[in-house]
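Case study.
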Amino acid sequence: MYKLLLCIRYLKTRYIALACIVSVMLGVATMIVVNSVMAGFSTEMRDRLHNFLSDIVIESRGTEGIPNAAAQMDRVQKAAGQYIAAMTPTIEIPGMMTFTDPWSGETFTQPVQIQGIDPAGKASVGPLHDYLDSFNPVIEDGQVVRKPLRSAEETVGWELTAEATAHRRKNQERRRMYLREIQSLGNSLLPSGRPTESDTPATDSTDATTSEPAAPTQPPAAAAPDFDTPSTTPDTADPSAPATAEPASAEPAPADAPPMDEPQAQPPQDADVPSDGTGGNVFLADQPQDEAIREEPLATRVYVGEGLVSFMVRDEETGRSRKVMMVQPGDDVIFSTVTAGRPPEVIKFQATVVDSFRSGMGEYDGSIVLMNLESLQKNRGMHTNNAITSIHIKLHDYADAPQVLKALEQAFEPGLVSIRTWEEKQGLLLSAVEVETAILNVLLFMIIAVAGFGILAIFYMIVVEKTRDIGILKSLGASSSGVMSIFLSYGLGLGVVGSSAGVILGLLFVRYINEIEDVLSWITGRKVFDEKIYYFFEIPTAVSPWMVFWVAAGATGIAVLASILPARRAARLHPVRALRFE
Amino acid sequence: MAETETLKVGQPLISADAISKAYDKGQLKVPVLRGAGLTAQRGEFISVIGQSGSGKSTLLHVMGLLDSPDAGEVLLDGNRIDNLAPAARDQLRNHVFGFIFQFYHLLPELSLLENVMAPLMIRHSLLGFWKKRREIRESALEIISEVGLSHRLRHRPSELSGGEMQRGAIARALVARPEILLADEPTGNLDAETGAGIMDLLQRLNRDQKLTIIMVTHDESIAAQAHRTVRLKEGRIQGVAWEDAA
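After joint prediction, the assembly is written out as follows.
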């Protein structure tokens, strides 16, 4: 009885014990917050990975794919039909995408992963609707700045939105102006169209190799002024003219306004391409040379990953980041990839961007281009045997995955395809995250261990301070184990109080983490958590009750462990010496 | 009563025989007691007098089982108690002995009432205490009123005067109904008047409750108030003086 009473009294009267409580509390709170946020991020990441990959992926070993998509899917259906909710054939092939940045007029070529999909099929195995820009509102600072361009009921397809069509028409219109202008300029000033090249500034020569095949993509470049309206434009060469040009873009005058800089100089060169002989490409072959103006979108259509064609600009004044798109729906881009033949040959073809998508996985958004399956098959020469490289399968219940894997492995001859769940396919990334979490937990637990040593030191002090009281208790008949249990329960008390306070603090922090983030942003003047960088509007958190329990139990355990040594010392004190202690 | 008389004659309540005790001071062994002995009959009031370092406190501690002798033995009712197991010694300290110290040694975190109840809290488990809490409280209150501190129940030791603290300490020593009260310089830290009050209290307890008291002091006038005075010098008994009042 006295143990409990004294223990409570010591807890109440020793302010130094508050230091122990605070250290335990902070350790526990930190662990809970970090674990919750990490779990939140990791759950979110897994969801996004999972959603994009579907549940099970069957992939051919080679880029030439497996023939007869329908038969293969029949085979899957026969093998494990009862588990399967949906499946869709896909072609996955690495390639290059070339586009012109309207800001600088530069032409960029980037490595991409081209995925040939059937939009309806893709939408049936994953939330494609949620990814596509035109189906989603644009939200800035919690406010909708643009409503979804398409209604959610609309099925995903390859049609351009009205906005994209308008954008395309405007571009083509402007391009036509150019051509006319330059033609007349050329006719009046120069003996032939060719010498216009001499007007072409240096940039042209530096990327002459890319600019020639890329020439047909110049329409977006010609439309450069169109993008110049944002205040942070990197193109400061002609700041005033484009700004005024934009609202009246349909009129011929603004089109004249931009001076003769490099992107505008290129269209005539574009016209020269076929005569150069260098442009005798696959994609040029099926496009009449004289048809410089193409108001109708091309047959090959793509959704481009947002990360591929956008970059973030930080507004120095507000400290906010803003996304700038280099390619808009309605623009044309060029793809280079290989045919399915043996050996593969390089092919190039043009495609019209229908939409941009954002899956939330930077890895995907910065590399993947979704293309219509038939066009990709045609371009790669896979349409004759309806070949595909992979089948994405969505299950009714992901828990059935092992059975399905087994059934599919029996259905397909070994070596032909690899069959993996999304987890196996992303195994490296997932295990990296797991290892990271584990290491972080170990490190954080060390913080609590440090708190434990603090408790040890403070307890030693308390035992020294209480030496005489220990002597008194012993003279009153208290046993050594009784004295020891006073200090052990003192440690337990500190641990329990500290852990409880830590749990409460941690959970409150997690609950109000976004508000806290706002306050921190307000204090520091910088966005602590920039949703545009992380793709999250709010900091994701996931609190697992077991995690909270184990953290609290662990911290309490450490507090008790730390009190063992001082408690033993207290128990072993000789009563007489303790009483004489001054 | 006749039984007590026989005991009184035949067997002392407590006796310490030929106690030797030395303390380690670094390399040196400093002898404190060199074969000192003391015998107390039931109901006796004995004072042990000696100078500082004569070993009188150590003798008291050995008899009260706070310390163990190097040689010699302590008998309670004829049974040897100095070599008992720690648990049994704890029990005896709780049940048989009551201690009073020069510096009162009340627990600073507890109120006076809680301090007085402390020996009974130690005796009973949490459950046992809960069952008997009213009883324990009653007896504590009774003893506190006996020492005249009923108006100070809720006060902390730091809020009490020296005399009040010592009265509180006496109440704490008595609450467990001990057979022997061991007092180590109970008036050593008090002025003469307050000290006299404490001595009156001890004498009253001895007279009314037949409580056996062994008191250590260096003050002749205080020592003289006991039935007999044992003089201790350099760890040995020098002589015994009987008081008339006995």
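Observations recorded in class. Residues 313 and 376 of chain A are 34 Å apart (CA to CA). The first strand of chain A starts at residue 56 and ends at 60. We will return to this complex in the next lecture.
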